[in-house]
Protein: Carboxypeptidase regulatory-like domain-containing protein
Organism: Saccharobesus litoralis
Amino acid sequence: MLNSLKILCLIIATSLLSACDEPGPSTQVIGSVNKGIVVNGQVDVYEVAVDGVIGSEIKATGSTDEMGRFIMDVPLPEGVRLYVKLTANPQGTSKMLCDLPTCSGSSTDAQGNIIRHSVIMGQWLPLPDTFILSAFVSEVKVGESVNINILTHSVAQKYQEQAPDKAQLENEYLQLKQELNLNRLPNEIEPLSPTEDNVVDDANIQDNLLVLAALQTIEQADNITNKVANFVEHFQQNESVVTEHTSLSEITATAVSLAEPLITSTNIGVSEGVDMASLERELQSANIVAAKKENRLPMADLPISPPNL
């Protein structure tokens, strides 16, 4: 009897130890970062508590590849809320593809000296140490892409004190989609990859151009970090990207001007699958519709056309 009891205790203890060794739930998170493409960027994942508070503990860390994408296993079950943040990595190897007429930023050398950089569209810029992009995920799901850009970042920064619930996040994204006349929600916009295996997606190109045009139209700043920060401030102050002074007609006109130089300088059309004439017609049509609603002249009827940025 005593031996049987000992054996039973041993079995129970072994079972408990085995349970402790088993890994907890884990969810594979995939996604992308785009402002333009960020290579070797550090992506940190935080859990959002039930009360909406962003946790202080980093649950997982990943890195973006040459297409600005990342993939990592997060030790959390499906369905939880996440806060995902991109920064420059500690090794100083993070870089960003300039997708605006000019980009500028700064980095720090081994001696602590600040090095300023100024590059043009299509060139690479060291990712500034102060640069941040972020996004909330209302319900993390396996296979669902987490796309981070200046629109998701603007919404995320608005809710830093208390994370949005699913309905709030969906409403914010839907509002941005409608006011900028996007084909997709902000968190569904993919990066424009300058690689040979890039799949040409006209709707995605249009959305990227409209987002870039909004950034270019709304805020001129001395470096890319300040440009994005000021864009976020504009969004928070106005509860909108499009305002009376930053109209959709102006944004769409800027998108037309950005189209050819962006695609040419960043090799987005390497597969020769981009129909520039069709793309520009779509954007010009959007400009005409926006101008009519705003009671303004469309870009084609302006005395001087917008500059070819």
The CA atoms of residues 108 and 213 lie 30 Å apart.
